[in-house]
Structure formats: C-alpha cells, structure tokens
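FORM 12-B: Structure-to-Sequence Request
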C-alpha cells in the first residue's frame, strides 16, 4: 500500500528502481561477460514476478474500487500507465545491453546465431536435432477454426505463426497458428564446431529453421514466426468448501492460476500489425493492459542458465564456502553447540553444517524429536531427506510447511505428500498468516532430562539458494531462546492461544511494538546526550509507520544507517525529516538477504537477526522470528560484517528520492567491494585461528 504524502517513495517505483540496479550489473563492463547474461536473466525473472503479483494487485484494485487514489496516492490507472512506461524504457535498455554483450562475446569467439546465419553443416545438425529432440515436444495449434482461443501459459514463450496460403485469386487466405516453445529442452543449443569458434542457437530459431517440417501439409506462399509472451495475475483464490483440505484447495488454486487474467503482453516489434491484432483480440487483451513491444526473444529469464562453455575466465571466480571456526563436519556438531553458540554466514561459509546438524539428529539415539519450519526448499532437498531419515529412525518429526509460499506451492505440496507418507507430522500454518520464520528445535534426552538444540535463520533451509543468497544462521543450545522457539510450535498447533516470549520477538503479535520500543530508547538516549544509533540491514522497508518512527529518530539526532537491497519507501537525507539517515543498496554477485538489526543502547549495542523486513506483511500478517544475539563474539562478528557492508563503494548505490541509482562516491578511498571483503574477513579469521594453534 502507498501513501499520498510526499514523505515516501512509491513502493512500485522503488521496486522497479531495484530491478534497474540488477540491470546496471548486466550493463557493467567490470562484470564478467557470462555473468552479465545471468543478471539479464535475473532482471527478466524479477519483472515477470512483479507483473504477476504487484502489477496484477493494482490492476485488480482498479477494477474493484474507485477509491484507489486514497490508497495509492494516485489513481490506479495513472500508476499502471507510469509503471508500463518505466518498464518499456527498461526493456529497451535491456535489449541494448543484450546486443552489446553478444558483440563482446564474438570477440571471445562465442557466436549466438539465428536461423538465417547457419552454415550447411550446422543446418544438417539442427534439422536432426529438431527431429530427434524438439519435434516430439512441440505443441502446435491451428487457430482460425477454433471456437475458443486456447489458453496460453504465462510460464511459456510462444511463436505466433502467420501462413499466407497459395491462391490464384488476389485475396490471399491467411491462417494463424501458435507454437509453444518447449520448456523441457534447454533454450540454448550448442552447435558442434571444428574451430576455436563456438556457436549457439536459441531453441526459438531451431524451430524457425524447421517451420516447414511442422507445416508441410499446408500449401503456403509465405510463413512468419514472431515471439509473444503473456503474464497472468498470480493471485490464488480459495473456495469455501469445508470438505476440502487446505492442500487440496491450494492445489486447485495453483491450477486455476494458469487461467488468471492477463496483466502484460510482450511481443516482437517486428510482428505484422494484422497478426498482433489477431492475437490481442483472441486473448481478450485490452488497451488498458500492459502491452509492451520487445525484441525477437522473450523469456530472457532463461539467460540465468546460459551455458558456460567451459569459459570460466568469463565468469566470476568462485569462492569456495569456508568452514565455521570451531565446528566440524566430522565430529558431533551437537556436542559443540552444547558448549557455545555458533554463527554461519552463507554463502561465505558452508551450508553443509545445517545438513550435518539434521543428519546427526536423525541418527542420534538420544534425540527424541525434531521440529522445523519450511518455506522454500531445494529441488532435491537434503533437508527433507534428513527429516525422512529421522522419522524412519523413530524420531518424532514435526514440520510446519508453508503451502502458500508464492510460486513454490506445487513443490511444497509434493514434499508435503512425500513427508506425510513417511510418517512426518505436518502443520499447515495459521489461518490468515503465512509462516515465514526459519527455526528448528531438536529435543535430546540427556541424563533423563530434555535438552534443546536449535537453529534460527534469516533465510530458507534451502541448500541451493544458500549458494547465492547471503543469510546468517545461529546454532544454539541457549535454554531461554529455545524455550521461546518451542512455544512458537505450540502456537502453530493451538493458534488461538497467544504466547508470551521473553527473548524472541515474534510477529504478528510483538514485532512492531518491540521495534518501536527499541527505536524509542535510541531517541531517549540521543535526547539525553548519550551515544545513539541504529544500523539496519534488510531486504525492504515499505511500512509507513516504521518509516515514520525512523524519521522521528532522525529528528531527535539518532544516526541511522540502512543497507536495504530492494524496496525503500523511506527518503533519506531530507532536512528536518531524515537528515540523520543514510541508506544504500548493495547489488552484486550474491543476493543480499540477511536481516541484521543493531541498536546502539548507549554504548552496549543490542544485536538481532530476523526473518522479517520492515514491511507491513512481515510485521502484521506473517509469523516471523527475530532473535537476540547474546554471545559476545557473534555479536561483535555481526557488527563487523555490517560495517563491511557499510564501507562498500564499488557495488553500493544510494537510495534517494530521485530514484537515479547513483553509485556511492569513492573520492580518495580505495575500491571496496563488500561481498569480496566479507569473504576475506572470514578467510582471515581462519588464518588467525590457525596461527594461534601453531
């Protein structure tokens, strides 16, 4: 939701500005060429989700109420037009960048060719490849004689086909068809080569080259193929049938999502006007929808998986995940955690410790139960495998799995069915609330008493995303923290009872109030002449009340430093409002995802890690967990890592009202790339420990 005053940046425009930062990475000549392709893919994928969720929500609002200006600050129709204009400009820039990258690849002897550029030998290979691999997977639909236009999915790309038939009369018959580009086949086909040059052709052009193989039963004079793409509203609608389980309702809703209202239509600018009009009319796409001219190829999210061709010199150097000092993947991890807390900062350090934690618990005869929250899981999840292993070993395993994790619903339903079959007890959350917290509690019987061990994380228990998302996870046996964590699982089970927590800060009941109190204390300290500061690292800040609270802190003289990757509705540096607030965004090789909150507390800082951003949904409409850090070494470590991020002057952009994504000025300072310095920080820690042991 937006606010009509000028104290806030529009949420949607702020998000588009974040995606423009991703596009900046694709445009950055200092980024390796093949990684620039990856950023183009991320940009496109982000935009797809934005239209499916945010744009669709505003469009829905415009159809349901005339009061949109009170909610959005401007009429919904105006905001939708402004978004479309920004996206058209960004799409144009992305096409320019794509062309530039392709030209630079040619200097590296890598050529992306189309169907008109192939040699005779390549054509023979492509034709054989089409017959063997592509043709069996191609779905082609002739459109003229259908009573109803077929449903086009928003996860697929399509070729709009126009056939002009042979005729002796001047009035030529025109037939239209649509070909779905198979998503089960790699979009990029590497062609054989006898030289140093490497050639790639897109699957779209493999199909274009073989159009006659598809349409040879027709006597046509000419044929054209232009790519189109549809984006649909991703809102899930649940029926009220009480006889259906939540899993069944969500499963049905996911299927219905495929027929959601169109919210964006992207087309090849070279398409014929008559062909474009035929498809727009057939798909009931109105002029009020977002109709965006694009290039020859869409679904550029596929560039995230562009083949590396063995050219590691054109990719970022891979930093191998480091070990966590004091923890071993060989001995007992639980015995280590019993003695002290540990912090894992992925991907700088290895996610394998979390897998080890669960696998050890699965085998340990003294472990009685495992309770865990799951939001997004890896494709072949080792987390789920470990939990099933535990259940087979007689442990009581309880899993709170969020079936409404957007775009992961089908995967989570599949995993739920798999775990249920293996005897794992499933909890499907709290009505009206998504469970976004990332916690795990293990109960072990030691000397006849229950001893708890646990994890509290800022990120999902997902070994795949842990390779690219920066997140922190606390390993702890702290009695008080884990007593509170156990209460959260009690709340999942009996959610009409609101528990009191002495240490953890839990949404939706306590997070807003507690953060307000923490900020109020800094305000009081500033007014009393004491040291007062707030340092927050998060993904987004869009809640206006929390923004106002930080404005209040700034006016009182509290120094506020914000590292916000994505949406930032707060305007920093405004005299009389936010002159004591600075805000930056870091967009680099890894996706900044950790939430670290530091409050000065008159020289005795309090440090928290959290699953929650300063967004209304995180504070009021989800189950989130913010955890205090009590271990002095870990507290110091998190403060130091925040400072590393704050020093960034290479990949850091300044949040500002003008949304220009200006890079932080370096002045006389040396280049400081925070993510690489973070890796160096953890590497240096290991070296210091090694020296001390010698």
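FORM 12-B RESPONSE
SEQUENCE OUT:
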């Amino acid at each position: 939701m937006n606010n009509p005053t000028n104290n806030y940046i529009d949420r949607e425009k702020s998000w588009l500005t974040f995606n423009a930062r991703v596009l900046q990475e694709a445009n950055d000549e200092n980024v390796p060429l093949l990684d620039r392709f990856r950023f183009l893919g991320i940009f496109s994928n982000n935009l797809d989700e934005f239209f499916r969720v945010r744009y669709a929500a505003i469009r829905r609002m415009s159809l349901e109420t005339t009061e949109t200006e009170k909610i959005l600050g401007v009429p919904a129709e105006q905001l939708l037009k402004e978004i479309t204009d920004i996206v058209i400009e960004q799409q144009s820039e992305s096409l320019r960048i794509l062309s530039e990258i392709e030209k630079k690849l040619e200097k590296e002897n890598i050529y992306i060719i189309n169907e008109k550029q192939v040699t005779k030998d390549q054509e023979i290979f492509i034709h054989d490849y089409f017959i063997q691999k592509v043709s069996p997977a191609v779905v082609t639909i002739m459109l003229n004689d259908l009573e109803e236009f077929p449903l086009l999915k928003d996860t697929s790309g399509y070729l709009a086909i126009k056939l002009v038939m042979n005729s002796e009369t001047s009035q030529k018959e025109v037939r239209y068809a649509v070909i779905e580009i198979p998503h089960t086949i790699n979009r990029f086909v590497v062609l054989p080569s006898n030289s140093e040059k490497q050639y790639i052709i897109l699957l779209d052009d493999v199909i274009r080259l073989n159009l006659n193989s598809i349409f040879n039963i027709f006597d046509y004079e000419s044929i054209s193929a232009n790519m189109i793409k549809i984006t649909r509203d991703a809102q899930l609608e649940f029926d009220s049938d009480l006889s259906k389980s939540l899993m069944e309702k969500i499963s049905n809703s996911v299927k219905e999502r495929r027929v959601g209202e169109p919210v964006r239509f992207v087309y090849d600018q070279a398409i014929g006007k008559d062909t474009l009009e035929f498809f727009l009319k057939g798909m009931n796409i109105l002029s009020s929808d977002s109709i965006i001219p694009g290039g020859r190829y869409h679904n550029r999210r596929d560039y995230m998986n562009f083949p590396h061709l063995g050219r590691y010199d054109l990719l970022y150097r891979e930093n191998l995940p480091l070990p966590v000092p004091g923890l071993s993947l060989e001995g007992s991890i639980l015995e280590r955690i019993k003695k002290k807390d540990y912090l894992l900062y992925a991907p700088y350090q290895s996610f394998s410790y979390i897998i080890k934690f669960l696998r050890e618990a699965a085998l340990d005869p003294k472990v009685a139960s495992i309770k865990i929250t799951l939001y997004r899981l890896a494709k072949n999840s080792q987390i789920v495998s470990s939990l099933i292993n535990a259940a087979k070993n007689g442990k009581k395993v309880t899993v709170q799995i969020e079936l409404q994790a957007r775009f992961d619903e089908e995967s989570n339903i599949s995993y739920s069915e798999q775990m249920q079959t293996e005897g794992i007890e499933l909890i499907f959350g709290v009505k009206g609330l998504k469970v976004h917290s990332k916690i795990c509690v293990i109960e072990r019987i030691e000397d006849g008493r229950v001893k708890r061990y646990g994890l509290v994380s800022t990120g999902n228990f997902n070994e795949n995303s842990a390779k690219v998302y920066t997140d922190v996870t606390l390993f702890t046996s702290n009695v008080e923290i884990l007593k509170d964590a156990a209460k959260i699982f009690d709340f999942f089970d009996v959610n009409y009872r609101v528990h009191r927590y002495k240490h953890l800060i839990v949404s939706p009941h306590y997070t807003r109030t507690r953060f307000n109190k923490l900020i109020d204390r800094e305000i009081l300290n500033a007014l009393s002449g004491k040291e007062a500061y707030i340092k927050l690292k998060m993904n987004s800040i869009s809640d206006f009340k929390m923004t106002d609270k930080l404005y209040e802190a700034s006016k009182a003289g509290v120094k506020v430093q914000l590292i916000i990757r994505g949406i930032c509705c707060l305007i920093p540096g405004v005299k009389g409002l936010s002159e004591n607030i600075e805000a930056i965004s870091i967009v680099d090789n890894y996706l900044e995802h950790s939430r670290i909150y530091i409050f000065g507390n008159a020289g005795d800082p309090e440090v928290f890690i959290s699953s929650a951003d300063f967004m209304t949904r995180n504070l009021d409409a989800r189950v989130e967990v913010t955890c205090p850090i009590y271990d002095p070494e870990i507290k110091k470590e998190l403060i130091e890592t925040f400072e590393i991020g704050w020093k960034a002057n290479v990949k850091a952009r300044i949040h500002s009202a003008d949304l220009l994504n200006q890079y932080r000025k370096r002045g006389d300072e040396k280049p400081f790339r925070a993510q690489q310095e973070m890796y160096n920080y953890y590497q240096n820690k290991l070296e210091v420990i090694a020296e001390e042991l010698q």
